[in-house]
Amino acid sequence: MELQTKVKLPNPDFSITHTNSLLSIGSCFSENIGKKFNYFNFKIHVNPFGQQYNPLSVAAGIQRLLRNEEYTANDLVYYNELFQSFDHHSDFSSPNQDEAITLINTAFKSASNTLLNADVLFLTFGTAHYFEHAETEKIVSNCHKFPAKTFRQKLASSKAIVDALNTALIPLLAINPKLKIVFTISPVRYFAFGHFENSLSKGHLFTAIGELIANNAAYSYFPAYEIIMDELRDYRFYAEDMLHPNTIAIDYVWEKLAQTYFQSNTISITAEIDSIQKLVNHRPRNNQSISHQQLLEHCNKRIAKLKELYSIDFLNTTL
């Protein structure tokens, strides 16, 4: 008996290995998948602006990265005793102005360098709804709990999304022609605007991505949304809010992504790294014991072998 409606996985013309440079930008789902890449010690930079949900903000961020236009104090606003940027998630906010600028530009410079040489760029969109600052008419990525009257809520048309992304991505591909761009749509439903409005918003995203991938060989789509909605059609795969996928669901999508983009050798390497990570993350009763020191020595030897064979940095594994 087949008890699931299985989603057909794409057959991309490229694969991902530990030698590739990766960048992931977009919603919280993008961040969750980025953390999986980090766990397995891939070379990836995740969300240099923090979580961004709408494609217009993502496109504007990519354009700024291409211009290499770092942020200054003039780009910050002060509210609720914090210096904040409307382009950034609250993770980059600080009560100290210099610290906020440092946080923002450290991530910015790293992502700008990565973008110009990246092999794969993952872009995950959550909604076509966006907020525009009422006074400046600038699209914001985060409202930072400012009064509602500060912004106007809008819905981007599929044409506006296509135009914004092409404006950002075509110049990027001219600079970095080897880059592959993978679009995904977040399975998180945004019911703040209403159920119908969420479906309408997702529809705009699907229509835009469909047009984009039909007209540029560098663009492709990974069906994370469909995998969650069809293969995991059950609330036990959701967090307590019944909107966000839980850990089991994220792990499941990760397995599907690995099946799609990893060759057998890379899958074997990630299995070895997973084994090492589980040993390293285990907390012993006595971390000074002879047995624990022997375990660490064993892990170090396995890490050294992987470094030698596959040039893996292991920046995300701490012994």
Q: Helices and strands in order, then pairings?
A:
Layout: E1 21-26, H1 28-39, E2 43-46, H2 55-67, E3 77-79, E4 82-84, H3 97-117, E5 120-125, E6 129-133, E7 139-140, E8 151-155, H4 158-175, E9 180-185, H5 195-215, E10 219-221, H6 224-231, H7 247-261, H8 264-281, H9 290-310
Parallel strand pairs: 1-2, 1-5, 5-9, 9-10
Antiparallel strand pairs: 3-4, 6-7, 6-8
Helix pairs in contact: 1-7, 2-4, 4-5, 8-9
* Major sheet characteristics: 5 strands, parallel
Number of helices: 9
Assigned CATH superfamily of the largest domain: SGNH hydrolase
Q: What is the overall silhouette?
A: globular
| CATH-defined architecture of the largest domain | 3-Layer(aba) Sandwich
* Uncertain spans: none
Order of helices and strands: EHEHEEHEEEEHEHEHHHH
Structural class based on helices, strands and sheet pairing: alpha/beta
Main sheet strand line-up? 2-1-5-9-10
Q: Approximately how much beta-strand content do the residues carry?
A: 5-15%
Q: How many strand segments?
A: 10
Overall helicity: 40-55%
State the end-to-end CA separation.
Answer: 46 Å
**Total domain modules:** 2
Average pLDDT, to the nearest integer?
A: 95
If you compute it from the alpha carbons, what radius of gyration comes out, rounded to the nearest whole angstrom?
Answer: 21 Å
**CATH class term of the largest domain:** Alpha Beta
Q: What is the CATH topology descriptor of the largest domain?
A: Rossmann fold
